[in-house]
Each structure stands twice: as structure tokens, then as C-alpha cells.
Amino acid sequence: MAEDSYDFVVVGAGSAGAVVAARLSENPAWKVLLLEAGPPNNSVWLHVPIGLVKCFRNPKFNWMYQGEPEPNLNGRRIYAPRGKVLGGSSSINGMVFVRGQASDFDHWRQLGNTGWAYSDILPYFRKLESHIGGDDEFHGRDGPIQTMQADWRNPLTEAFIASAQELGIPRNPDINGATQEGAGYFQLSQRNGVRSSTATSYLRPADKRTNLSIVTDALVEKIEIHAGRAVGVGYRRGDQRSAAVAIREVIVSAGAVNSPQLLQLSGIGPPELLSAHGIEVKVALPGVGENLQDHYACPVAFRVNVPDTLNAQLSTLPRQAAAALRYLATRRGPFTVAAGVVAIFAKSRPDLTHSDLQIHFFPFSKDGDVSDRLHKFSGVSAIVDQHVPESRGYVRIRSSSPSEAPAICANYLAAEEDRATLVKGLKLLRRLFHTQAMRSYIEEELSPGPGVVSDDDLLAYAKDKGDSTYHLCGTCRMGLATSKMTVVDERLRVHGVGSLRVADASIIPAIISGNTNATSIMIGEKSADMIKSDCR
Q: pTM of the full predicted structure?
């Protein structure tokens, strides 16, 4: 076995891991190894925004996990795409850039996680971002990730914002500003028609450093633990197995699925699970792989009578060619559309202090997921999800083989509150499309359809047609060591193991009110600062 020594070994070059490696390598005295199971970030489809359609079910860049039968969704298996490429999910996701609400992070602090209140993490959100427009108090101007407001704007998108105002939901010009509640245009991690991923924004500038080694197509199989301390990792590239020694620390940033999987394979996790697969228990941590959270969304779709949709503008090969030429010439048009144009954050009940529903409005309609064909007529759609679901699931290894995908079950809609809130969200969506602002554009409700009326009908529809929003998190929960189901402390050190941290969306103790990618990048920034401070 070939063996090399580094100060730090970072496992996973995704939304957080790429940030950790890039920031640690800023110290020229430290030698950093970054291991990524996927390939380099070279394909054009990883940079053109509409490429998310091409990557959604592409095994070259995507783990393409399939969930276990969901007990509350009539046994349906929910697809769980995860990035497997430099930049991870930031290279293949929908580019929607949402931070969540201040109360989300203040709740993290209330759970005992010192240093994670909103006032503590806002500087890191500002540090990572280069934003066009907005208030300097909330946005950075010279950070690595370039962000902007969605620029697909036309009478339909303005009408949808007006429909929210008609229902008493205020227009909000900055959903990542002083308050999240309201209706406005999504902010996106792109600029000038090009995706801004952690691969392009962090790793590309850092790649020239001689103290940073980036190894792709490297599947980490095990964390080596000796005398209660992580001392390195074993990994495989093709048929060749290698080992890397970590003099200072191993940082696991493999994401909400692969981070708990790797810990479990390394003997860190629920003793019964590990023993069942013949794995020696190094550290008994029952919370590893538990506490899985995700946003479960339900769609509506409508046929419209105007051509201001992707359906109309990409309906024929000549129109697709015209859109491609427009993109090449101007970096604008249909090829820049992300997974959401208009955002609405609203309350399901008037007595709530914060919004608990998120709506994505799309300028297209289709029958299936992102990878399916658009309808041949002009249509629009929207989804609604509950911000903070109570339902919890798990990620658990199926065997001792690193190559076998783990079992993933989010346990969607297990909680009564989740079911009731989603039904209220569907009712709100319908009301938005039947306002005076939208009514003149609507020809027909395609789904759920006029036959779906009662609360029971809506819930049945949600169980049959709802889907993940791909915001998996929480499986290596951050919290006090005295709490039975936590995995890392407030400095992201794994309980009971020296020189080992986890830094990615898996450490999130309670899911945030919105898309999770921006928070994952923030976790990378903050963890890098903590490591620098602890390892002086």
C-alpha cells in the first residue's frame, strides 16, 4: 500500500469539503489532501445552469441514491441525488441560494451549540458571498460564491408575486436580508449565466498551491483509528488501494449520506448496527446516521395562455437552437433558469411568529421530475414544502462494503403536524393561482386537478405525488455530548474520537427554513476557521 503523510486529510470535495480544503491550504506550512470519490469538474453541463437537467440522473456526477420504501407514502421509494464530483452537490444542484431564518440558527444555539447563533454565523455567510445588490449588513461583496437574483422576469413572474400580495403576503426584495417572509425573486449561486460552485469558486483558485493535493475518483473506505484517535484514511482508486496519514486531523465532509456511512464503516456508530455487519465497534455513537431530515414538497401545475414559459420557448428543435445561440451570445435566456424563479415564504397559520412554508414557482410544467420532458403546451408549476418538519429518518449501512449504497429513509410525513401543514400549503398554492392577478393567465389546472377537493384528497395526492427537495441533513447531529443522539460537538469534533471532525450538512441539528446549500458552504467556512484556531 502506498502511504503519504499530510497535516490534514479532507474526505469529500463537495459544498463544505472544498471550502475546508481551500481555506486550510491558505497556510503554506500545512500540507492538505482532499479526496473526492467523483471526477473533476470539467463537463460543460456542470457550468451551464440548465445542465442541472443533464446531471440529475447522470451516474458520472451523481450518486443517484434510491431511498427505502417510505411507510407514509404508500411504500414509494424517493430518489436522492447527491453530487459525486468536485464541488459535490453545489456542482449539480438547482443553484437556489437561501440562508434560512435567523431563528433557525438561534435555535441551534439554544440546543447548546455555542457559536452557532445567527449573529455568529452571519459573518460567514457574508464572507462566502459576492452578491449583486442588497444590503451590506447581510451580504458580502468579494466572497468566492457569486450570487444574484433570478433574472427570468416577465408578466407571469410579476403576476405570481402580485398574487401573493393580493393574499396579504408582502413583496420582499431580499429574501436573505432582514427578514425572509414575503414574495420575491430567488437568489441564485450563478453570475453571468454560469453556475458558481465550490469547485470553481474555491478549488480552482487554490489548485495552484503546492501544499494542496486534490485526488479525484478516490473512494475513501475507512477512517483509521488508533488509541482513540483518527490517524488517517484508506482509500481506493480503481483497483489500487492507498493510505493517507493525517498528522493533525481527518475532516469528513462527504455529505448527509456518505459521512454517516463512512463513520459506520469505520466502527463509529450504533453498536447493534455495526456488529450486525461484522464491524468492530471503535466508538459507540447511536446517533450516527439517525436524525435524517429533509423538506418534502408537493406540486401543482397549470396550463397558461401566454408564451412566457420554458415549455413554449423550448418546444421545438429550432427554438432550442435559438435559445442555445442566445446563451452563447448573451449568457441569458432559458439556459440560465434554475430550480426556482419566484420564492414565497409564508405562514400556514396567522398565530405563527415566523413563516413555515416555502414555495418555488417554475416557468415550466411537466409530469415528472427535473429530468422529464416539458409539456408540449405552455405551462407553469409550483411546489410547496414545510420549513421545519418533525419527521425524522435514518441512513444505515447495509453491509461492511464501502461500495454498497446505504439504506436511506427520511420517514416523510410521519408526524401529524407535517401532514396538516402540507395540506395547508397546497391550499395556499391553489389560492395563489386563483387570485385576480393570476386568473387571466390560467387555462386549466393540470394537477392536482379539479377532482381533488377535500383535505383527505389533498393529503392522498401529496402522498402519491410529493417528492424530496433534496435537502438531506442532520445525520451527524451537532450537540452536547450528554445528549444521547448527537455525534459532534459545537466545534464539529466527533464525540469520543480525537483528531476527527465532520463538517457538512450532516451536522445540522435542526433543518433550516429553506434550501440547504448556502448553509453547507457556511459550515465549511466556519469549520475551517475553527480548525485553524484549534491547530495553531
A: 0.96
The pLDDT tens digits of the residues spanning 203-239 come to 999 999 999 999 999 999 999 999 999 999 999 999 9
Express each pLDDT in 370-386 by its tens digit: 767 899 999 999 999 99
Active-site residue set: 471
Helix (H, G, I), strand (E, B) or coil at 405: coil
Contact between residue 50 and residue 392 where contact means Cβ atoms under 8 Å apart:
no
CA 523 to chain centre: 12
Please give the Cα distance from 454 to 376 (Å, whole number).
Answer: 30
H-helix or E-strand spanning residue 147:
strand 145-149
CB-based contact 461:452 (threshold 8 Å): yes
Any bridge partners for residue 304, and if so which?
442
- What CA–CA distance (Å, rounded) separates 252 from 500? 8
Q: What does the buried/exposed string (b/e) look like for 241-278 if buried means 16 or more CB atoms within 10 Å of the residue's CB? A: ebbbbbebbbbbbbbbbbbbbbbbbbbbbbeebbeeee
SS (H, E, C) 348-387: CCCCCCCCCEEEEEECCCECCCCCCCECCCCEEEEEEEEC
Cell of 137: 449588513
